[in-house]
Every structure is written in C-alpha cells, then in structure tokens.
Specification:
Blueprint lengths: L2 E10 L3 H10 E7 L6 H8 L4 E4 L7 H5 L6 E4 L9 H6 L3 E3 L6 H17 L1 H9 L20 E5 L3 H10 L5 E5 L6 H7 L1 E3 L2 H7 L2 E4 L24 E4 L8 H9 L5 E4 L10 H4 L4 E3 L8 H19 L12
Parallel strand pairs: 1-2, 1-3, 3-4, 4-5, 6-7, 6-9, 7-8, 9-10, 10-11, 11-12
The structure holds glyoxylic acid.
Length: 324
Amino acid sequence: MKNRTSKALVTKKLLPKAMEYLENHIDFQVAGIDRYPTKDEIIDRIKDKQGLVSLLVDRIDKDIIQAAPDLKIIANCAVGYNNIDVSHATERGIWVTNTPGVLTNTTADLTWGLILSVARRIPQADRFTRNKKYKNWELDLFLGQDLEGKQLGIIGMGRIGKAVALRAQPFHLKIVYTDPIKLSPEEEQIHKASYLPLEDLLKTSDIITIHTTLNKETHHLISKKNIHMIKEQAILINVSRGQVVEEKALAQALKRRTLWAAGLDVYENEPEIEENLLSLDNAVLLPHIGSASIETRLKMSMMAVKNLVAVLSGKKPLNPVNQI
Ligand code: GLV
C-alpha cells in the first residue's frame, strides 16, 4: 500500500526492480537522473523529505541533515557508511541503515580475483597480447608469484575478511589477521587464521589484504610511517576504503620497488587516482567494483529501499547502523 504522506529523496536512480518497489510504496523524487547531484541540489530537495536513499559517493554531512527537519531515515546503498555523519543523524533521532551480508561473498571473490591478477600479472599480460606483442613463448615471459606456502595477512577480520580467509584454504597459504577484536579460538580454527599485531603482520606477510571499515583509527592505517615494514616481494590489496592507505606513500613504494605490486579497488580521493599509480605497471587498478555482480547490486538496492519504506511506514529498519 502506498504511503502517500511520506516523501523520500533518492540521490541517483537505483536498479529498476528497486525503483519499481519504491513506485509501489512511496512518493519519491530522484535528485540526479544521469549524474550525481551536488550538495546544494541535495540540500534544496531534501527540505520537505522524510527519507533519503544515498549511495556511497554521496557525502551526507551535517549541512544536509540539518536542511531536513522531518528526516527519519538515511538508507545507504552500501555496507560502508563512512559517507554519512552518523553521530549527527543519531543526535537528531534519524535512522541510518546499510546493506550488510549480501555483498560479503561477492567482495571476497573480487579480492581473490585481484590477488591472482596481481600475483600472476594477468591484466598486464592481457594488454600485451591485445597489443600484438606476443611473438614467441618465452621462459621468462610475465613471471609472477606462486601463492602456495606464502603468508596471507588479513587486516580487518569482519565478514569480508573471514570470507577471504575461507577462500584461501585451497591455495595452501598460512593465514594471519589483525583486528581490534580477536576471534574466538573456535573461529580461528574455522578460518585457520592466527592473530598478529599490525606491525608483525606487515613485517611477515607476503600478501596483505585490507578489509577494515574506515574510521578515525583506520585512516592512513598504512602510511609512510609503516609501509617500509612490508617485505619487498609482497603484494598489497585494498578493497575496503581508499583512505585506509596513504596513496602517495603506496605509489612511491611501488615506484621504488620496495613493494612488489598492489591491487586496488578503492582510492583516497575517489574517483581521482594518484597520477603516479596510473603509470605504474606493478599496480592493478579497478573502479570500485567489489560488490558489482548483477545479483548483489540488486540485493543491495532492494535492501536500501526496504529499509526506507519500513521506517516511513512506522516500523523499525531492518539493517540499522545506529540506535535511536
Ligand atoms: C562498497 O564499497 C560498500 O561499502 O558497499
């Protein structure tokens, strides 16, 4: 049943099924049809709205929240919610929701795609072949690295970190992890992973993969202060948030070959990318597609709109990140 008294703003069109769900349940307006709306455009359109559906690139800050006196929910279509001023929303009694769980396996799959791409230099070899440079089989053509027997260091052992660990088992890697919350002995056993403090993980791992959330503690967790601790032959993978890694320090380490290679799905000033990285052959760069499968992006879109409609129908949200 359509709740005609509720009005929501969607920053940018979601997948068709989610738009259909909204049309059947609620009155809404889309702020940007084929582009993201500017902050001023959001402020202008949110004034009379009770709900907002945002995407991870929309910065939903205090100014935007203050512009909407009737706002009840911000439904983010992403698992990460560092783009939202959650503490201000909470102070105002506004629910913030995210899309946990549905993208765990998809993102862990992509992480493994990146690990293998970087270790075996697959995108570089593809470019070489397309450029008609493949003239002869050579014993030393595109030599990569084996995974077997190496140490995988997982930074952030939440849902995605654990799914990455489970996928590591057939590759016969030693798995270590770091996280503010140590796993129980049973969970360590299931994931065949042992705890190490960050510094020890950096110093001893051959493949380091980042799956932490972005917050004050994890901003520049890897920076010029500690990147030199990583082994020269190591690989660094980041599919979490760009600001967890100091991008300039990473580009420098890759350029100087004090780090063997990196695979990145996220960037510090997304979608801008450190110029040096773009020209480096030992970096594999993706456009933030960690959760980008047909099935998962649909589930995320549906979760966001269901959270919105639940709250605007007077119910509790399904996936709150704050408590009101
Ligand atoms: C993707 O990065 C997400 O947070 O869902």
